[in-house]
Structures are given as structure tokens and as C-alpha cells.
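STRUCTURE:
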């Protein structure tokens, strides 16, 4: 890798590193400067430290998982085989290339289209895009159910880590709210001079200011993502509705609030609040609100996919239709 590439990669970690340093400072300021130095009531000190550490562990755990969980890429069945790639590259006629890609798409469970109604194909990754999959130019890969690329975790948020990202936002909000609520009384005491100044005063004052600032900012972001989950949309789909064979439909994946939540967090409610894998499916297949066998007579290919891929009965609602045209993503 060139020096410029190394510099870009290092610079990309700057926001995440800043957030990590801020979290470390907040830990020191709260535990040492507030609880160990400022507080005098032993019972209050133990209660604050106990609750703080529970929230802090959940916050760091979710942040770690959001940052270091790799974005999941499409299965090899969506990639061009060596023979198809050779045929595609040797075919000089655009019509012939489109026919090769159309033959590939007929074997795959894809339902969404481009705005012009064409099959979604990524020329950079050489694959037919699964439903809700998009190419991330920063990660240089196609990401299953891509939501957005987040600079604060230096990672692409998609199917593999969207639950972790939501929990990261939730526990960051809870972390800031707890700090602000417990620090406020001592902020006033330092401000009015009831407590003597010194190093602790500086840390306590800034703890409140920073926690309130982040709390207000993240409230809107977390609220927005809660709305997205309730509607079963990604950030990209909220800005541009997915296109189906019958046209755009912003509610195409909306199954109702309860089912939408379970699709992200899973069936086991005891796992909802922990950053562990529990989301439904594998990121390639998504049930659709308006799609049924009665309205889609082209489901014969689904049986062929299941025989080839070994898809279990849990995915019987994930339908597809063959492609009639192809548009290349460049």
C-alpha cells in the first residue's frame, strides 16, 4: 500500500479514536474525580459506581462490536463464476453481456430493481446484488442490507452489525443521561462555590457539558433509527425507496412493527439488550409485504435455489423473480 493510502486509512480512524479517548476521559473523570474525590457519602459512592460500571460495560461492548464486526458480503452464488466471467469478458456485444447477466439472475432470489427496472449488478465486485445490498465506496465492497458508513466507528453498518449499532446508540444515550443526572448536583455545588475548586471542579463541569451535548445530539439520531426499524427501512431506503418489479414501494419490506423489530433483534427477547448475534435470516433474503405466491407466478425458480443452496424451511417467505434487463453499477 502506498504512503497516501496508509495516511487515508489512518485518518479514517481519527473520529473513532477521538470517541474512544473521550470515553476513557469520561471514565476517569466520573470514577476518580467525582466518585472517589468529590463524593463523601459511602452509600451514594457505591451506588453510583455500581450502576455506572454496568452501563459503561454495555456501552463499550456495543461500541466494540459495531466497530470490529466486519460488514457481511454476498454469498459466492451471487458472484460471477469463472466460466461466466470468461464468457462475459469475451462477449463484445452489450446485448450478449446483458443476456449472460440475465441468465445468472434467473437462478438467484432477487426481487428489487434499479430505478429503470433493471437487475442490480455491481461491476466492481462482479456480482448480482442481493435485495437491500449496496456497494460501499469507502469499504470497497458490496454490503448486505447496507444502512450507511459510519465514521465514528470507521465501519460500514449493515446486516452483520446493525443491531450492535442500535445498541451502541442506546447505551451511549443511557451513559450520557446517567452521568448528567448524577453529576448535576455537584456541578451546581462547584458552580456556586459550595465545594472548593481544584482539578475535580474542571472535570465535573465538563462532564455535565459534554454528556448533555451528546445526549441531545444522539436523541435525534437514535429516534430516527428507531423509526427506521419500526418501518423496516435502512437509511438508504428512507432516502430512495426500493424498486420492485411492480415499481417503487417504500413499505415493500414493512411487515408490521412487531415483525420488523424481531427481524433486527431476533425471536429471543432475552438477547435483545446484549450485543450478540440474534438477527433473523442471513442478509440475503427478506420477506416482502406485498409479495405472495398468488401474485408472483414466477416462484418456480425458488425451488431450484433451495435445492442448489440448501436453504432451510425458515426462508420459505423470501421470494424472487427472474430478471428481464440488467443495469451495471459503475
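SEQUENCE:
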Amino acid at each position: 500500500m502506498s504512503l497516501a493510502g496508509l495516511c487515508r486509512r489512518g485518518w479514517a480512524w481519527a473520529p473513532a479514536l477521538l470517541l474512544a479517548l473521550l470515553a476513557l476521559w469520561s471514565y476517569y473523570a466520573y470514577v476518580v474525580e467525582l466518585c472517589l474525590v468529590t463524593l463523601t457519602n459511602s452509600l451514594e459512592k457505591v451506588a453510583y459506581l455500581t450502576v455506572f460500571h454496568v452501563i459503561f460495560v454495555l456501552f463499550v461492548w456495543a461500541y466494540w462490536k459495531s466497530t470490529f464486526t466486519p460488514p457481511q458480503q454476498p454469498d459466492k452464488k451471487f458472484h460471477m463464476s469463472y466460466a461466466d466471467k470468461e464468457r462475459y469478458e469475451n462477449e463484445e456485444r452489450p446485448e450478449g453481456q446483458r443476456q449472460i447477466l440475465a441468465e445468472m439472475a434467473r437462478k438467484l432470489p432477487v426481487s428489487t430493481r434499479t430505478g429503470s427496472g433493471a437487475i442490480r449488478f455491481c461491476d466492481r465486485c462482479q456480482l448480482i446484488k442481493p435485495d437491500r445490498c449496496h456497494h460501499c465506496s469507502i469499504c470497497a465492497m458490496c454490503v448486505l442490507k447496507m444502512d450507511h458508513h459510519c465514521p465514528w466507528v470507521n465501519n460500514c453498518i449493515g446486516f452483520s452489525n446493525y443491531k450492535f449499532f442500535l445498541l451502541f446508540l442506546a447505551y451511549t444515550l443511557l451513559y450520557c443521561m446517567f452521568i448528567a443526572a448524577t453529576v448535576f448536583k455537584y456541578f451546581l455545588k462547584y458552580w456556586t462555590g459550595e465545594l472548593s475548586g481544584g482539578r475535580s471542579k474542571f472535570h465535573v463541569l465538563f462532564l455535565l457539558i459534554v454528556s448533555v451535548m451528546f445526549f441531545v445530539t444522539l436523541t435525534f439520531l437514535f429516534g430516527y433509527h428507531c423509526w427506521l426499524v419500526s418501518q423496516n427501512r435502512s437509511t438508504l431506503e428512507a432516502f430512495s425507496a426500493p424498486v420492485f418489479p411492480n415499481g417503487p414501494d417504500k413499505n415493500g419490506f414493512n411487515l408490521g412493527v412487531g415483525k420488523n423489530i424481531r427481524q433486527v433483534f431476533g425471536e429471543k427477547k432475552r438477547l435483545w439488550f446484549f450485543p450478540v448475534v440474534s438477527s433473523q435470516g442471513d442478509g440475503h433474503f427478506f420477506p416482502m409485504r406485498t409479495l405472495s405466491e398468488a401474485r408472483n407466478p414466477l416462484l418456480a425458480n425458488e425451488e431450484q435455489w433451495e435445492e442448489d443452496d440448501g436453504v432451510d424451511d425458515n426462508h420459505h417467505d423470501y421470494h424472487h423473480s427472474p430478471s428481464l434487463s440488467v443495469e451495471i453499477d459503475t
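REMARK: Residues 292-330 have pLDDT under 50 and may be disordered.
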